[in-house]
Amino acid sequence: MRRLIYLLCLLPLFAACVDEEQFDNSPQGNFEALWKIIDEHYCFFDYKQQAYGLDWDAVKVEYAARIDDTMTSKQLFEVLTGMLSELRDGHVNITTAFDYGRYWSWYENYPTNYNDSIIRRYMGTDYKIAAGLDYRLLDRNIGYIRYESFMDGIGDGNLDEVMMECMLCRGLIIDIRNNGGGNLTNAEKLAARFCNEKTLVGYYQHKTGPGHHDFSKMEARYIVPSSNLRWQKPVVILTNRHVFSAANEFVMYMKQMPQAIIVGDHTGGGAGMPFSSSLPNGWNIRFSAVPMYDANQQSCEFGIEPDHLVQLTDDDVAKGRDTLIEYACDLLMK
């Protein structure tokens, strides 16, 4: 019998917790350990039971029948990854030396609404770069910022320079299509340039026990205005299905900013702060453990609807035009 220590690692905003359990390092032991980690710590059981009928006990019965103590590691990996895919959560993963178990259907089964070659035509070769931000002035005097990943840091000095460059523009476009998330601090820092007062943007809860309903009261989250330059004119946020996690949160924040308009496709979601743990065989597990909500206390786990649903058209692609950018420019010219 091997001692398994679940060390739940979380981001600095929240307090850590440790749980201990014992399971064999066997296919059956690893299966039981994984099912129990998720059962006690995953945060969206109620939401997903209501959304599509998720029954975690029934999932256990279904996948336990596929466990055989003579199976190989790769066969076990396939079964465990299949079981986790029932959660329909892009924040849930298994990491092994030979593969990475994931659920990517939140964007794979939808139009991309993004063409990198066309974006490069808009950007040209003389665009400016301020840390994680690429930016330039477009025709019709519109400022354009491309932020590919919230993993890329930004500083107040970077944001001041971008604001100064776009100061005389009629409006601003922030293109976060294909931004799969990263550091929430970067999303908050950018959003703080678009409000003039402390703004309620959402809520979160802590898991307080092993039960599926064991949560703390909702705690409010606010964006505090930056003390540096702040944008006062209209701003359009471009989105697609690949906008996930911290990028999804950024869209949620901007929904509360009065001069912001969301244009494009439904975002991919990912509204659970991820924790990590491990199995007796050493495989690492990641899963959603802290649920995040919007300002109306609604979950954004399955994404956010845009204010204007706009799809990239084949006709525009053939002409080298980005339908979403052109639509945003038209909005900002009104």
Describe this structure in words.
The chain is of the alpha/beta class. The chain contains eleven helices and 15 strands. It has a seven-stranded mixed beta sheet with strand order 5-6-7-8-11-12-15, with helices on both faces. Strands 3, 4, 9, 10, 13 and 14 form a six-stranded antiparallel beta sheet that branches. A two-stranded antiparallel ribbon has the order 1-2. Strand 13 (272-278) and strand 14 (284-294) form a beta hairpin.
Number of helices: 11
Average per-residue pLDDT, rounded, comes to 93
End-to-end gap = 69 Å
- For the report, how would you describe the main beta sheet? 7 strands, mixed
User: Low-confidence parts, pLDDT < 50 over ≥5 residues?
Assistant: 1-18
Helix content: 25-40%
Q: Please state roughly what percent of the residues sit in beta strands, choosing from under 5%, 5-15%, 15-25%, 25-35%, 35-45% or over 45%.
A: 15-25%
The ordered string of helix (H) and strand (E) elements is EEHHHHEEHHEEEHEHEEEHEEEEHH
Silhouette? elongated
Strand neighbour order, sheet with most strands: 5-6-7-8-11-12-15
What structural class is derived from the secondary structure elements? alpha/beta
- The radius of gyration computed from the alpha-carbon positions, rounded to a whole number of angstroms, is 22 Å
How many individual β-strands?
A: 15
